[in-house]
């Protein structure tokens, strides 16, 4: 086997290895050699071997076979071997290893060794890796050492006691008296250890805390000595004497003074003195000041002192050193709840820190800014926060957005401002907001009814700019669908008018639907909005087609939700179109739409999205008394009054007077025979003083309807209604097709007056009466005498009667 | 209370690792890697303190080691070496920052203008220095002169 090389050589060899593989080779060879050496009884190079092993362990390779060797070496009388043995114990052994118990005895012996360095080694090891059992065994020894005369040992013993207390809490009682006596030491190191020990005892045990409260005056005394008299060259750091000890004492004072008036009073002067006298140009000074501030804020200090503390924090905020700004904001965060006004004074600086380059400083500044928002400064703060949002790192966006929403909700000065703010956030950081902002925003918009126009205009413009922010797109789609008519109207008081055509709107929605950036939820919103627009936009046939074609595309979409929506909307178009306000103007040429009667239940509801519970118009409003003047379209302004004054009739037969002039009265009554057959009975009577003869009735129907006129009962109308003339007309609509847009003549009625033979012809036209303005007047004239009736046959178009007098 | 002290170089090699808390071997390894990842990406425009939720990487630390939520890392970079101390959240950052500097100054005196190689070849001596200045997770001796005196005495014993 290769001879073992000294430590330095080995380290050099390992370092010169060029590849990982080479290094591993070297290490394996060395470990093998070391193992062999360990098996030998004793040679002078044991410590070297163990040191080599420890180096290998530091590099990350397994070295547990050295544990027993450590144990053996600790027991060795030679100092060098002991040292390496203890080091090995600290590195290789820990509580979980069984071998650690074996060294308990060695440690115990070494604790009473004559050489203080051996003692210190033992203390060190115990403090580093002592398990609970070891601690329990050796606690009395430690206590003894605490009272020893050697300050070097006392220092270490004190910290060892700290470790023991942490491991086994009950032993704290054991050390309390010794700790108390240590406070009167002059040696800083011992003092330091003592303070740490007392801190630990007090933190763990409230009774001990009570007991140690009496030491507050002593501690104050010590601090005063440090602060005032202080130049001790040994412990001086940048002009401040022993800042570490000062920090420790301040911490202990904090614990002792918490929730205790008497102790806090005793410290007030001291704290004020430290706060004012400490030099704050260097980090050490700031460390002491920081600890002072923390103490002041934690105990029951007087208000002047608190103000001083907050001012110190404010000064920290202006410091150039980023570290100090950071810790200042951390502390301010803690007190912003209680000392809100004091922190408000530094709001400007905090807001400036939002622009710092370090992400952690930005985070602290953001949290503090959100906590400082109040009703009085909401506008300026929000400006800053929105500016921050546009440039902040991605991990802070969600927090910033939700904080802004919360603040806006609590302190919004006006609804418009609120909506503006939310829109701004959505455009800048829409991808990072939480899911419930969308419904919240929708609810907010709904409630702000006077801002609908403004909102929808703004959202539409935002949508045109950018469709990648899902929340924004969802809200925009919903608004366009809901308030699309306001958008198309164009003018709006609160924002510049812009002419938006229906095609533009549909284009926008279609882009959303087709874009790959849209999530399925967004597509659902867009689809529903498209559907809703079909009721808002009423006068454009092509648009209607376009909407339907868009919607029906999604009937075969992969996404089940979209597919379901599209199919349901298509069904609405098909079956319940009679309720839609514009279906009557559609021709039958394209889709298989079953258009109901022309004048039938036009636009029965404003929202065709709500499927009607049963087919036919008898279900909804038709059942009002007498069925007359069912103004089914009462709610729809854009539609002209013509369809509104449609009489419907649910009874199987009902008589209506359709014409009454110059003494001639004509009534119609209908009766449904079957699904496609309607029987109309025309009854004429004469109430003038002269008789009428050669009275004939003529009727005309659209091409899709078959007309069969039965023979009239007569053609002579005696005077004063002595007798009536009736005629039966059978109308057959086999295809159940809707009326055409062409005009047709319905009834032509010749009236012979025995006097002159005036022919009156009654014409009726069905027209695209929604579009053509002139027919409005005509129809309004006519409608006073027009009666159209419909029964359950919503698909049976009755003749529309209009009267056009011609002389 | 200090949880551990680490000295690492930029490449991630550990020059010193002192643990004041119980960790398994693989946990120790993971911690070393994570601390290295967190600390090496920071430059002059960051603060010297790393709290758990500040970066995604350190968030991973808090997930792997739940107790890490109460810790923070205070580090300082000297040439190619990062001196990292992991402490409790409630501790005074600036004081430990000064503690690191104190420690480095002692090393400098002891090794006469210390460089990384000194730490590599005399690693056991570095441990001695650490044990002189920190014990049981607390700062033990702050006076540089005293520490140096002790170290020289110890050296003479060997």
TrEMBL record, chain A:
Main location: membrane
Topology term for the membrane: Peripheral membrane protein
Keyword Protein transport annotated: yes
A biological-process GO annotation: intracellular protein transport
Residues covered by the GAE domain: 651-770
Record-stated family: Belongs to the adaptor complexes large subunit family.
Protein's UniProt name: AP-1 complex subunit gamma
Originating organism: Lates calcarifer (Barramundi)
Name of the coding gene: AP1G2
UniProtKB/TrEMBL annotation, chain B:
Keyword Cell membrane (UniProt): yes
Keyword Transport annotated: yes
Record's bilayer topology term: Peripheral membrane protein
A GO term from the CC aspect: AP-2 adaptor complex
Record-level Gene Ontology MF annotations: clathrin adaptor activity
Domain spans labelled AP complex mu/sigma subunit: 1-157
GO biological process, one term: clathrin-dependent endocytosis
Protein localization: Cell membrane; Membrane, Coated pit
Alphabetic keyword roster: Cell membrane, Coated pit, Endocytosis, Membrane, Protein transport, Transport
Family of the protein in this entry: Belongs to the adaptor complexes small subunit family.
Subunit comment: Adaptor protein complex 2 (AP-2) is a heterotetramer composed of two large adaptins (alpha-type subunit AP2A1 or AP2A2 and beta-type subunit AP2B1), a medium adaptin (mu-type subunit AP2M1) and a small adaptin (sigma-type subunit AP2S1). Interacts with CCDC32; the interaction is direct and mediates association of CCDC32 with adaptor protein complex 2 (AP-2).
Protein name: AP complex subunit sigma
Natural source organism: Lates calcarifer (Barramundi)
Lineage: Eukaryota, Metazoa, Chordata, Craniata, Vertebrata
């Amino acid at each position: 086997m290769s001879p073992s090389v000294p430590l330095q050589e080995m380290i050099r060899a390992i370092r010169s290895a060029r590849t990982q593989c080479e290094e591993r080779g070297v290490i394996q060879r060395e470990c093998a050699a070391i193992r062999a050496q360990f098996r030998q009884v004793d040679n002078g190079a044991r410590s070297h071997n163990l040191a080599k092993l420890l180096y290998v362990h530091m590099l990350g390779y397994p070295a547990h076979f050295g544990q027993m060797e450590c144990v053996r070496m600790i027991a060795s009388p030679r100092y060098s071997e002991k040292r390496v043995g203890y080091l090995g114990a600290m590195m290789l052994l820990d509580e979980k290893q069984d071998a650690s118990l074996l060294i308990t005895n060695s440690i115990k012996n070494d604790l009473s060794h004559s050489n203080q360095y051996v003692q210190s080694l033992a203390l060190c090891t115990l403090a580093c890796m002592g398990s609970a059992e070891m601690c329990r065994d050796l606690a009395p020894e430690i206590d003894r050492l605490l009272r020893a005369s050697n300050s070097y040992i006392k220092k270490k013993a004190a910290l060892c006691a700290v470790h023991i207390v942490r491991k086994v809490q009950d032993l704290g009682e054991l050390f309390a008296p010794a700790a108390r006596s240590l406070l009167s030491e002059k040696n800083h190191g011992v003092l330091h250890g003592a303070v740490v020990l007392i801190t630990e005892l007090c933190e763990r045990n409230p009774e001990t805390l009570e007991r140690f409260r009496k030491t507050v005056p002593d501690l104050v005394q010590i601090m005063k000595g440090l602060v005032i008299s202080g130049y001790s060259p040994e412990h001086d750091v940048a002009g401040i004497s022993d800042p570490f000890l000062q920090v420790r004492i301040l911490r202990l004072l904090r614990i002792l003074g918490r929730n205790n008036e008497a102790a806090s009073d005793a410290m007030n002067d001291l704290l004020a003195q430290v706060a004012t006298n400490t030099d704050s140009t260097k980090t050490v000074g700031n460390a002491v000041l920081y600890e002072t501030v923390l103490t002041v804020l934690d105990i029951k200090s007087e208000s002047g002192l608190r103000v001083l503390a907050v001012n110190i924090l404010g000064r920290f905020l202006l410091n150039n050193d980023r570290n100090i700004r950071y810790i200042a904001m951390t502390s301010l965060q803690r007190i912003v709840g209680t000392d809100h006004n004091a922190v408000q004074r530094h709001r400007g600086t905090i807001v400036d820190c939002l622009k710092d380059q370090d992400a952690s400083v930005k985070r602290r500044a953001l949290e503090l800014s959100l906590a400082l928002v109040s009703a009085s400064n909401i506008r300026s703060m929000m400006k800053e926060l929105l500016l921050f949002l546009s440039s902040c790192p991605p991990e802070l966006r969600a927090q910033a957005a939700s904080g802004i929403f919360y603040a806006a909700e609590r302190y919004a000065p006006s609804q418009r401002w609120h909506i503006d703010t939310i829109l701004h956030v959505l455009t800048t950081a829409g991808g990072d907001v939480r899911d419930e902002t969308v419904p919240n925003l929708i609810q907010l918009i709904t409630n702000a009814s006077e801002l609908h126009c403004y909102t929808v205009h703004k959202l539409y413009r935002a949508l045109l700019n950018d469709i990648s922010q899902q929340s924004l797109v969802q809200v925009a789609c919903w608004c366009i669908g809901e308030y699309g008519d306001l958008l198309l109207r164009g003018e709006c008081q609160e924002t510049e008018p812009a002419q938006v055509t229906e095609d533009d709107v549909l284009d926008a929605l279609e882009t959303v639907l087709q874009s790959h950036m849209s999530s399925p939820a967004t597509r659902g919103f867009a689809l529903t909005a498209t559907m809703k627009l079909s009721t808002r936009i009423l006068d454009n046939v092509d648009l209607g087609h376009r909407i339907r074609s868009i919607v029906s595309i999604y009937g075969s979409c992969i996404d089940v939700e979209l597919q379901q929506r599209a199919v349901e909307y298509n069904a609405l178009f098909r079956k319940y179109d009679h309720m839609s306000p514009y279906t009557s103007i559609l021709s039958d040429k394209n889709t298989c739409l079953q258009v109901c009667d022309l004048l039938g239940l036009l636009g029965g509801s404003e929202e065709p999205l709500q499927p009607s519970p049963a087919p036919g118009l008898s279900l909804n409003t038709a059942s009002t008394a007498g069925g007359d003047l069912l103004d089914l379209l009462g709610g729809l302004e854009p539609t002209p009054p013509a369809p509104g004054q449609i009489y419907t009739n649910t009874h199987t037969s009902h008589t209506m007077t359709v014409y009454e002039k110059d003494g001639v009265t004509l009534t119609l009554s209908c009766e449904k025979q079957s699904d496609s057959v309607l029987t109309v009975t025309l009854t004429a009577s004469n109430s003038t003083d002269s008789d009428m003869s050669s009275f004939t009735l003529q009727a005309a129907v659209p091409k899709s309807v078959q007309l069969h006129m039965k023979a009239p009962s007569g053609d002579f109308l005696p005077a004063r209604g002595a007798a009536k003339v009736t005629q039966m007309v059978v109308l057959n609509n086999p295809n159940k097709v809707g009326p055409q847009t062409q005009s047709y003549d319905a009834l032509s009625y010749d009236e012979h007056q025995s006097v002159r033979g005036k022919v009156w012809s009654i014409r009726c036209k069905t027209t695209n009466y929604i579009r053509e303005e002139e027919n409005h007047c005509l129809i309004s004239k006519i409608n006073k005498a027009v009666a159209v009736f419909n029964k359950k046959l919503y698909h049976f178009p009755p003749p529309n009667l209009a009267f056009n007098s011609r002389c | 209370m200090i949880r551990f002290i680490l000295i690492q170089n930029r490449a991630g090699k550990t020059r010193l690792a002192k643990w004041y808390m119980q960790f398994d071997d693989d946990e120790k390894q993971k911690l070393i890697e994570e601390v290295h990842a967190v600390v090496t990406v920071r430059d002059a425009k960051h603060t010297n303190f790393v709290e758990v939720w500040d970066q995604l990487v350190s968030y991973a630390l808090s997930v792997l080691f739940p107790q890490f939520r109460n810790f923070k890392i205070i580090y300082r970079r000297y040439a190619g070496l990062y001196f990292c101390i992991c402490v409790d959240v409630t501790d005074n950052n600036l004081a430990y920052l000064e503690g690191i500097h104190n420690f480095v100054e002692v090393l400098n005196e002891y090794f006469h203008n210390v460089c990384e190689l000194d730490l590599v070849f005399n690693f056991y001596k570095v441990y001695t220095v650490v044990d002189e200045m920190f014990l049981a997770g607390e700062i033990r001796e702050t006076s540089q002169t005293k520490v140096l005196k002790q170290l020289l005495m110890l050296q003479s014993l060997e």
